Amino acid sequence: MHLGIYTSIRARDIHTQVKPRWGGLAMYGGMVVALGAASLIPYLSGLFEEPARIAGIVGAMTLILLTGLADDAWDIHWVTKLAAQVGAAIILVLSELGSKWPQWAASNWTTGCCRLS
Questions:
Q1: Looking at the 3D structure of the chain, how many domains does it have?
Q2: What are the backbone angles phi and psi of residue 3, rounded to the nearest 5°?
């Protein structure tokens, strides 16, 4: 614990043993490597035709990573973490809709329909 890689048990934790910090970095790195490997597979090439999709995934991952790192370092408030999760979800939705966003919003907010087509 003197190196600072382990966090002591806090009142809000459910685990009973100390856990290492910064685990999100390994998960983030694994996802980046997996996305890179997937981009090389011809069967999955259609997923990478729109750069906005991949940028949205990486952007949402980065927001969650930074939030987790901030929580490990400063024990941030739960509302801040919730806001980051909602922000990551919004990034994913907007990146998936891409250029269809204005038309989708206009048609669905005026008709009350929520089906993406």
A1: 1
A2: -85, -15
* Residue 75 covered by a domain: yes
Could you please report the per-residue DSSP string of 63-114?
HHHHHHHHHHHH---HHHHHHHHHHHHHHHHHHHHGGGHHHHHHHHHHH---
Within-domain flag for 116? no
Residue 11 lies in a domain: no
The answer as to whether 66 is a domain residue is yes
104-115 pLDDT, tens digit each: 566 655 555 555
Q: Whole-model pTM? A: 0.73
Among the listed residues 98, 95, 93, 99, the one whose alpha carbon sits nearest the alpha carbon of residue 114: 93
Residue 56 in tokens: 């949205």
